[in-house]
From TrEMBL:
Protein name: Rab GDP dissociation inhibitor
Topological relation to the membrane, as annotated: Peripheral membrane protein
Example of a GO MF term: GTPase activator activity
Top-level lineage group: Eukaryota
Taxonomic source organism: Odobenus rosmarus divergens (Pacific walrus)
Length: 400
């Protein structure tokens, strides 16, 4: 291990694994280590079910009615991936007109603007132009555009329109949902990027205790593990490895719920995402519900896993998620966790230590993708070029 690397990565959460893969593809010499013997970090998939009971200190073993323990792969932090029913709730003419406008919108073609200046007109004014009611605005902003607050309403509308356009195009791709979810849980994703890194020369070491991050003159120079030092020019890590360099900005409550039935009023869907907009429950933050099932090879036959999450706003966080839990009744078993939201204290450009953010309450990867792109830009000084990454990947795997 006494070698010099361009980049050392600590932690195998999805953010760290994706960045490891990207850096390897870009020709960097990468060493990736984790103190744990498994991939995933905070976002790991837990199997068998007995391990989930132990992790949350639930007494006894899972009941026989829950099937074989090995049939379960429970994600601690589930998130859907945007793929690239259309809803039947709002079929009024004005909303359809709005969706047609979004579908035709092209920020490079002024002929599609219809009197709206995408760089100046606030989104609030766009909604007003199409005479959309508050319920529709809440749904559009939080469930389609995936905003967590209403601050976007007074910002230029271009980004919001493009977010809604992404949702619509992703929905059109497969017909029933704009989201993807990997079979056997999200634990497969970090391993996939680990394999990509390895193909390009990256080195992985699990179950490696991290004794010290070595800094000289304010800049990282290496990592010490089991008495050996690996030198590096840059370091990527999750907050748990550098507790003195991060700060707490809030908390998230997550409740994993095991069900024997689909969620009511979802047409017996075997997976779904429900977003309860903040305005609907007199809160500052949305409440998220992610539901998956045996169809995704994450639960025993006939069983469903629903995870409720939100940003904590009071001293009684379990009361805050009651509106979501009521949608899931009856619930066979609950596993409750409250975790801190941690963010880096600085950009890392001086120390060359680049720290990811802990996962927020959302049930989609949009904010995680933003964090990955932000870290990449701070490390390299340039924007992440997905098309270039795709071209390099195709050199190895062939065209999709």
């Amino acid at each position: 291990m006494n070698e010099e690397y361009d980049v050392i990565v600590l932690g195998t959460g999805l953010t760290e694994c994706i960045l490891s893969g990207i850096m390897s593809v870009n020709g960097k010499k990468v060493l990736h280590m984790d103190r744990n013997p498994y991939y995933g970090g905070e976002s790991a998939s837990i199997t068998p079910l007995d391990d989930l009971y132990k992790r949350f200190k639930i007494p006894g073993a899972p009941p026989a009615s829950m099937g074989r323990g090995r049939d379960w792969n429970v994600d601690l932090i589930p998130k859907f991936l945007m793929a690239n029913g259309l809803m039947g709730l709002f079929e009024k003419r004005r909303f359809r007109k709005f969706l047609v406008y979004v579908a035709n919108f092209d920020e490079k073609d002024p002929r599609t603007f219809e009197g709206i200046d995408p760089k100046k007109t606030a989104m609030r004014e766009v909604y007003k132009k199409f005479d959309l009611g508050q319920d529709v605005i809440d749904f559009t902003g939080h469930a389609l555009a995936l905003y967590r607050t209403d601050d976007y309403l007074d910002q230029p509308c271009c980004e919001t329109i493009n977010r809604i356009k992404l949702y619509s195009e992703s929905l059109a791709r497969y017909g029933k949902s704009p989201y993807l979810y990997p079979l056997y849980g999200l634990g497969e994703l970090p391993q996939g990027f680990a394999r990509l890194s390895a193909i390009y020369g990256g080195t992985y070491m699990l179950n490696k205790p991290i004794e010290e991050i070595i800094v000289q003159n304010g800049k990282v120079i290496g990592v010490k593990s089991e008495g050996e030092v690996a030198r590096c020019k840059q370091l990527i890590c999750d907050p748990s490895y550098v507790k003195d360099r991060v700060e707490k900005v809030g908390q998230v409550i997550r409740v994993i719920c095991i069900l024997s039935h689909p969620i009511k009023s979802t047409n017996d869907a075997n997976s779904c995402q429900i977003i309860i907009p903040q305005n609907q429950v007199n809160r500052k933050s949305d409440i998220y519900v992610c539901m998956i099932s045996s169809a995704h090879n994450v639960a025993a036959q006939g069983k469903y896993i629903a995870i409720v999450s939100t940003t904590v706003e009071t001293k009684e966080p379990e009361k805050e998620i009651r509106p979501a839990l009521e949608l899931l009744e009856p619930i066979e078993q609950k596993f409750v966790s409250i975790s801190d939201l941690l963010v880096p204290k600085d950009l890392g450009t001086e120390s060359q230590i680049f720290i990811s953010r802990t996962y927020d309450a959302t049930t989609h990867f949009e904010t995680t993708c933003d964090d990955i792109k932000d870290i990449y830009k701070r490390m390299t000084g340039s924007e992440f070029d997905f098309e270039e990454m795709k071209r390099k990947k195709n050199d190895i795997y062939g065209e999709d």
